[in-house]
Design goal:
This protein has a domain at 28-113. It is built from 2 helices and no strands. It has helices at residues 2-65, 71-110.
Length: 124
């Protein structure tokens, strides 16, 4: 009986060690997920801010545009809009690239949440 008690204590200690290691691994994975989501959110907020600034600039140019209707002003306005469209396209491309990178990172992190070898569920 004492031998069984000793084996049980050893088994419990081993299980605690495995669970403690798993807890640390999951805590690290949780921190990595939190960092990835926070970085993605921050980038999205920055991109929205840049696009809002462009919108405000367009609104200001449109408001001023009414004061000068000549062909040269129209060409300048058109060039300005094309430049702004390129800028918006660049912002969207950056956001798409970051989104893809974060999705890949999160996929890699998902493996950390898989079941740990060595922990056996209840017997049936």
């Amino acid at each position: 009986m004492a031998q069984h008690a000793g084996e049980s204590v050893t088994a419990l200690d081993a299980a605690r060690a495995v669970l403690g290691a798993r807890d640390a691994e999951l805590a690290a994975a949780d921190a990595a997920v939190t960092d990835a989501v926070a970085a993605a959110h921050s980038a999205a907020v920055a991109s929205i801010g840049r696009i809002d600034a462009i919108r405000a600039g367009v609104d200001a140019v449109v408001a001023y545009q009414g004061h000068d209707d000549g062909p040269a002003a129209a060409r300048e306005f058109s060039r300005h809009l094309v430049d702004l469209q390129r800028e918006v396209a660049g912002i969207v491309a950056e956001a798409r690239s970051l989104s893809h990178a974060k999705a890949v990172a999160l996929q890699e992190l998902s493996a950390r949440y898989q079941r740990v070898p060595g922990i056996v569920g209840p017997r049936r």
